[in-house]
Amino acid sequence: MTIGDLEARLDKLNDDLSSRDREVRSLRRQLDGTKDELSNINHGRDVAVGDNRRLQDDLSTMTRENQAINVELEEAINERESVKAQIQDYISEVSRMEDLLAAKVGL
After folding, report:
1. How far apart are CA 68 and CA 100, in angstroms?
2. Alpha-carbon distance 77 to 85, whole Å?
3. CB-based contacts of 23: which residues, under 8 Å, 6+ apart?
4. DSSP the chain
5. Does the predicted TM-score (pTM) go above 0.70?
6. Distance between CA 86 and CA 71 in Å, rounded?
7. Cα distance between residue 35 and residue 41, in whole Å
8. Which residues, 6+ apart, have CB-to-CB distance to 26 below 8 Å?
9. Dihedrals φ, ψ of 2, to 5°?
C-alpha cells in the first residue's frame, strides 16, 4: 500500500465518518422530537385522567342526588295516596252524615 492509497482510504473513512455523524445528528433530532411528542402525550393522558376522575366524582354525586330525589318522590307519592284515601274517607263520612240528616229531617 502506498501513501496515496492510505490517503485515499483515510479520505473515504473521513467521508464515511462525516456521513455517520450526520446520520447520528439526524437520529438525535428525531429522538428529541419523539421525546417531545411523548411528553405531550403523557401530559394529555394526565389531563384526561384528571378529567375522568372529576367526571367519576360528578357521576357519583349525581347518582347520590338522584337517589335522594327518588326517595323524596316516593315519599311524595305515598303522601299523595294517603291524602287521596283521607279525602275519600271524608267524602264517605260527609255522605253518610248527609244521609243521616236527610233521614232525620224526613221523620
Report:
1. 47
2. 12
3. none
4. --HHHHHHHHHHHHHHHHHHHHHHHHHHHHHHHHHHHHHHHHHHHHHHHHHHHHHHHHHHHHHHHHHHHHHHHHHHHHHHHHHHHHHHHHHHHHHHHHHHHHHHHH-
5. no
6. 22
7. 10
8. none
9. -100, 170
Rounded Cα gap, residues 28 and 21, in angstroms = 10
Q: What is the pLDDT of residue 107?
A: 65
Q: Which residue has the cell 490517503?
A: 7
Over the stretch 42-100, which tens digit does the pLDDT of each residue have? Answer: 999 999 999 999 999 999 999 999 999 999 999 999 999 999 999 999 999 999 999 99
Predicted confidence (pLDDT) per residue in 11-28, tens digit: 999 999 999 999 999 999
